[in-house]
Design brief:
Length: 130
């Protein structure tokens, strides 16, 4: 699906998020303490630039516009998932296989949700000329 210019960068950033999700999944599935620790460290290191910046951009620009356009259910879910991902990141210093698995699943599913539902709705409601 071709993205409106206003959503293009956010959509591109999802690739980096999926890479973090995949890293967390592989480490969790391995069950190896060293792999888990290394993945957790990489997530802690990457979160501010890769995910937090992305979340803040959506929360400042996209989500208020969607809420004003009547898509409050999508906005509420997006904000709840952002909050849970932030909470999981705060747990990363003590991460175990279960925390990494939850992070991997939620991040993967969140990206898919945004691409398939949030961005599609944004294109329809906010950028109908597209």
């Amino acid at each position: 699906m071709k993205r409106h210019a206003a959503l293009l960068q956010l959509s591109r950033e999802h690739h980096h998020a999926l890479k973090l999700s995949r890293l967390a999944r592989f480490a969790s599935d391995s069950g190896h303490a060293l792999a888990i620790a290394e993945a957790a460290e990489k997530i802690i290191e990457s979160f501010p630039e890769v995910l937090e910046h992305h979340f803040e951009t959506e929360e400042k620009d996209l989500l208020p516009a969607l809420a004003a356009a009547g898509a409050s259910v999508l906005v509420e879910r997006t904000l709840a998932e952002h909050a849970e991902l932030r909470d999981l990141c705060r747990c990363m210093p003590e991460a175990d296989s279960e925390i990494l698995a939850r992070f991997a699943t939620l991040l993967h599913d969140h990206v898919r949700f945004e691409e398939r539902e949030v961005f599609e709705t944004a294109q329809r409601l906010l950028y109908p000329e597209h």
